Amino acid sequence: MAVLIGRDLLSLADFSPTEVLELLQMASRLKSQKLRLRCHKVLGLLFSKASTRTRVSFTVAMYQLGGQVIDLNPNVTQVSRGEPLQDTARVLDRYLDILAIRTFAQQELQIFANSAKIPVINALTDLEHPCQVLADLMTVQECFGTFSGLTLTYVGDGNNVANSLLLGCALVGMNVRIATPNGFEPNAAIVETARSIAANKTEVLLTNDPEIATKGSHVIYTDVWASMGQEQEADNRMPIFQPYQVNEQLMSLAEPEAIVLHCLPAHRGEEITDEVMEGSASRIWDQAENRMHAQKALLASFLGAEEF
């Protein structure tokens, strides 16, 4: 994976299909095989949004690689007092070896990448969540051993996770269907990019009918109906999204061997029922664990690592 040393991950579209598959292969190996960084490295976490899995999984992954982590809370840095992002980026570039950013606007992430020479990783923006989808793809591969002939159906809000799923599934050659209420579809430009990557070899379907999307699918995926920053819309969205709940009735339309994924945190009883979340088809906890392995593969690839 020497080709990835020094690279950024702002969008899954930054990677080729081969690079994604090789990252997933490395992540799988890292579940049972140790690697270490070639020299001491420091990861900075600059998170403007709340985080449990992303913060902890990045931290543990870096420690297991033999590196260190600095948690850069924006509220106690000069960013909160209006320092230009490009100035902060140029300073952090002198201190850190790699930076993971969780923020609102994708443009902020791009400013950091343009202003710093160190690798910059998208740890979530309002537009994309590529680290999550690498873990999702890893989980699907563990369950089925292949992507060929599989269909992933995402049901709910066309948010950052839906956007990245479109790109990720297209890159690995898996069919993807996105079922959302009218007016809540994924980003149109990302849909077109995904269709370009799929190049008519795999299906990229958008629909407002969750039953049509779910029928015959192998992976059923959902997320909260109101993402971070949209909490004030939650009550108004509830009746709109209720028909998109992942429940046993919807699961009955999927393939018998279908699995269920959720990026968490979950609002049980809203976008997914307890019965499905705790049922035999759920791979949600494996999916959460795989965040750490997938991100460790990213860190090792971007910084350079060796087996021991």
UniProtKB/TrEMBL annotation:
Q: Where does L-ornithine bind?
A: 160, 223, 227-228
Mark the transmembrane ranges: none
Q: Example GO molecular function term? A: amino acid binding
Q: Tell me, which GO biological process terms does this entry list?
A: citrulline biosynthetic process; L-arginine biosynthetic process via ornithine
Which transformation does this protein catalyse, written as a reaction? carbamoyl phosphate + L-ornithine = L-citrulline + phosphate + H(+)
State the SUPFAM superfamilies in the record.
Aspartate/ornithine carbamoyltransferase
**Primary localization class, coarse:** cytoplasm
Q: What is the top-level taxon of the source organism?
A: Bacteria
What's the short name of a Pfam family annotated to this entry?
OTCace_N
Which InterPro entries does the UniProt record give?
A: Asp/Orn_carbamoyltranf_P-bd, Asp/Orn_carbamoylTrfase, Asp/Orn_carbamoylTrfase_sf, Asp_carbamoyltransf_Asp/Orn-bd, Orn/put_carbamltrans, OTCase_ArgI
For this entry, the protein name equals Ornithine carbamoyltransferase
Recorded source organism is Brasilonema sennae CENA114
